[in-house]
Design brief:
The protein contains six helices and 14 strands. The protein has about 325 residues and is of the alpha/beta class. It folds into two domains: about 5-200, Dihydrofolate Reductase, subunit A, CATH 3.40.430.10; about 215-295, no CATH class. Mean pLDDT is about 75; it is low at about 215-265 and about 295-314.
Length: about 325
């Protein structure tokens, strides 16, 4: 059994993901990504080798060891609240650390990795599993199954880079995409994007998938007015509504019909508390506005529109 896999990224309007190249500059992007990461509630997060290399503290491990290690999973810890999983098929990353942001590192290797590299991982307290017999060829489905079986990971967040995301996409392993789109541009040819491939996989299309959407839009209508959201799938049939007074730190909810009088004390109403809804909440709160989030129980419903609080122009 594999974990539920959520690809969580942030992107410019062109789908590019290298934040330092985006214009205009906005320092809120990184913190927002982390806030949404916390809201997704995953047991672990996963990145590819290039992204993982950014966290390494050593150039290389010693090249020789007298030890011979079996090609089977080895774990420095099994009791963590969350894990940082890194794909490193050929064993190129010398860590010099055991965790990233207090999340213990788990490396996914092929069986071609040297004993010397395994010795280095063990010395650093870095856990590892094997998901492939040939160099460069990781069995991604097998890797996910091992993470579930050995560490009990049920909900896994995929954070790139683009080649790694694309590999999971083409393997048909992604269950959900969380993708806030920022009002920024990059525009450079070859800049990293949300889903990509190596040259060898450029002609391979992603497997067919049925996508269910959850979205929220907010526009100026009255005192920043309201928003409307939509969600497809089985949950959309639920008609009960929940009034949610949301704060980035606390959330309270009360079930019942939503009336305009209940929202008169707020500057903005957001209907649809998905990822984009949370983004709108975050940005409006930055402006000092009082915001309320409205959401249908279990889903937004097919056509739900909330009238503006006030029609006064802004």
């Amino acid at each position: 059994m594999k974990p539920y896999l959520i690809c969580h990224m942030i992107a410019s309007v062109g789908g590019r993901t290298l934040l330092r190249r985006w214009r205009p500059v906005d320092e809120s992007r990184g913190p927002l990504f982390e806030r949404l990461h916390e809201r997704l509630g995953s047991d672990a997060w996963l990145v590819g080798r290039v992204t993982g290399q950014e966290y390494a503290k050593l150039d290389a491990y010693p090249r020789h060891t007298e030890q011979v290690y079996p090609r089977e999973p080895w774990f420095a810890r099994r009791d963590a609240a969350a894990y940082g999983v890194v794909l490193d098929a050929r064993g190129k990353i010398a860590w010099g650390r055991a965790d990233i942001g207090r999340d213990p590192i788990v490396v996914v290797l092929t069986e071609t990795v040297s004993d010397a590299h395994l010795a280095g991982l063990r010395k650093d307290g870095v856990s590892y599993i094997f998901a492939g017999e040939r160099e460069r060829e990781l069995d991604l489905g097998r890797a996910l199954a091992i993470l579930n079986e050995e560490l009990g990971i049920k909900r896994l967040e995929l954070n790139g880079g683009g080649v790694t995301n694309g590999s999971f996409l083409r393997a048909g392993l992604i269950d959900e995409v969380s993708l806030p789109i920022f009002p920024a541009v990059d525009g450079a040819k070859g800049a990293p994007c949300v889903f990509d491939s190596r040259d060898a996989g450029a002609g391979t299309a992603a497997r067919s998938a049925r996508w269910r959407s959850q979205a929220a839009r907010c526009w100026r209508a009255g005192r920043y007015g309201c928003a409307t959201g939509s969600r497809t799938g089985e949950r959309a049939a639920h008609s009960s509504r929940v009034l949610i007074e949301a704060d980035m730190g606390t959330t309270s909810a009360a079930t019942g019909n939503v009336e305009a009088s209940e929202t008169s004390d707020f500057d903005a109403i957001i209907i649809g508390a998905g990822v984009s809804g949370l983004y709108q909440l975050y940005k409006l709160r930055e402006l000092g506005l009082r915001v309320r989030v409205l959401e249908a129980g279990g889903g937004i419903g097919r056509h739900l529109v909330f009238e503006p609080v006030s029609r006064r122009p802004v």
